[in-house]
Design a protein that fits this description.
Mean pLDDT of chain B: 91
Order of helices and strands of chain A: HHHHHHHHH
Strand content of chain B: under 5%
Helix content of chain B: over 70%
Number of strands of chain B: 0
Low-confidence stretches of chain A: none
Helix content of chain A: over 70%
Shape of chain A: rod-shaped
Order of helices and strands of chain B: HHHHHHHH
Largest sheet of chain A: none
Radius of gyration of chain A: 26 Å
Structural class of chain A: mainly alpha
Radius of gyration of chain B: 20 Å
Structural class of chain B: mainly alpha
Shape of chain B: elongated
Distance between the termini of chain B: 24 Å
Oligomer: heterodimer
Number of helices of chain B: 8
Mean pLDDT of chain A: 83
Chain lengths: 188, 213
């Protein structure tokens, strides 16, 4: 991290960067990072991924650097971009969280609830999973038997949340197919 | 994480090229105003002045409405240019102009309520007025949108709103000189309503074009 640089310096560096000076630009971007972090910490204290937001802010700064007016202070310009990126990030997080809740509900509905609910013990429930590929088995075991959330399972197994959902869906589909075949044999 | 930020900075710095600096919002606003005023003048020439213009021009209601529409259009357009540059919306002049536009909006809304309360009967067939309003407003709106696109309208709702008010305001201003109907229901249905729809459409288009900035 670079020591905080006076705002007038940052404005001058940005002006040189607008002229194509790569060294001044790198210096300006380095000087921006602590300012962005301080702003995010002060205005968005609950923001978990401040590093990501700071980097997105730098990318936006890069894209719209021509809008900076050297006659004006750099801070309001930079912090308005940081604010926009933070709000955008929070909106995306909220949408993602809503979708995850819907996905989890869909996964729960698509499971074989009667199979797991009917199992009298953990061992009986585990027996339903025999024959599934290892990762699908571990995911379903954690979610349906241990009651873990998609996020917890992802953390536990070192997978992304979307990968966990895919594995769970595939496993449930196999369990449903297996149960249909068993019912078919019994009734036939 | 610091390593990631460092490599990002190096990458961005390696890509840097000279850029053409954006002119100030006021300069860009004046360019827009010049082009739009010319277009509105041509439109008025094509539409022709209302037959009772000299008589109406002496009426305080006409003068007040014309002044308010012109102020709203001009202030909104200037605000649109200011909103399209990050960090400008907190400035004193921008805050004052925002209050002015909001005040004119409130006065217009009250005026519409009064019109609604005093109007009786169905509106006449004045769809041509709506068409004229849309045609006059469309070109300044597109021009403004294109000019704002070169900046960074991060606050797309506000920017879309003032873009709509600026261009619909010019359309309504042109109707002041072209339409001689004083019927309240006519003004409400064929002048005000399409103006509001135009503003709403501007916000929708702004969201579509600038939401992902």
């Amino acid at each position: 991290m670079t020591a905080a640089r006076p705002m007038s310096d940052l404005g001058a560096l940005l002006e040189r960067a607008q002229g194509g000076d790569a060294q001044a630009y790198a210096e300006a971007l380095r000087a921006m990072l602590p300012l962005i972090h301080a702003y995010l910490a002060g205005h968005f204290p609950g923001l978990r991924d401040a590093d990501d937001v700071a980097q997105e802010t730098l990318i936006t700064v890069h894209r719209i650097r021509h809008t900076y007016d050297p006659q004006r202070p750099a801070a309001p310009w930079l912090l308005a971009i940081a604010r926009h990126r933070a709000l955008d990030y929070l909106r995306r997080r909220r949408r993602l969280a809503e979708r995850e809740i819907q996905d989890e509900a869909a996964i729960s509905r698509s499971a074989a609830p009667d199979g797991f609910a009917a199992a009298e013990s953990r061992e009986a429930a585990l027996a339903l999973l025999v024959g599934l590929p290892e990762r699908e088995r571990k995911v379903i075991e954690a979610m349906k038997i241990d009651g873990a959330s998609v996020k917890d399972v992802a953390g536990r197994l070192g997978l992304s949340e979307s990968h966990v959902k895919v594995l769970a869906s595939r496993g449930y589909a196999k369990l449903r197919r297996r149960r249909r075949e068993r019912h078919g044999r019994e009734s036939g | 994480m610091a390593g990631k930020a460092d490599s990002l900075i190096e990458q961005l710095a390696s890509e840097v090229k000279p850029v053409r600096r954006l002119a100030s919002p006021t300069v860009r606003f004046l360019r827009w105003l010049g082009a739009s005023a010319l277009y509105v003048a041509v439109c008025l020439r094509v539409l022709g002045p209302r037959p009772d213009l000299s008589e109406a021009a002496g009426s305080p209601a006409f003068l007040a409405a014309t002044l308010l529409l012109a102020l709203a259009a001009v202030a909104s357009a200037w605000l649109a240019f200011c909103f399209s540059v990050p960090g400008r919306s907190g400035e004193r002049g921008v805050r004052l102009a925002s209050r002015l536009v909001a005040g004119i909006g409130a006065v217009s809304f009250l005026g519409l309520i009064v019109l609604l309360a005093t109007s009786l009967g169905p509106p006449d067939h004045g769809w041509k007025c709506s068409l004229h309003l849309a045609l006059v407003a469309l070109v300044p709106a597109v021009l403004l949108g294109l000019m704002l696109r070169r900046a960074a309208p991060l606050q797309w709702v506000r920017t879309g709103l003032v873009l709509g008010v600026a261009s619909a305001g010019l359309g309504a201003l042109a109707l002041q000189f072209a339409c001689c109907s004083g019927d309240a229901m006519h003004l409400l249905v064929w002048h005000a309503l399409p103006g509001f729809l135009f503003v709403a459409l501007a916000v929708v288009v702004a969201g579509w074009r600038w939401r992902r900035l």
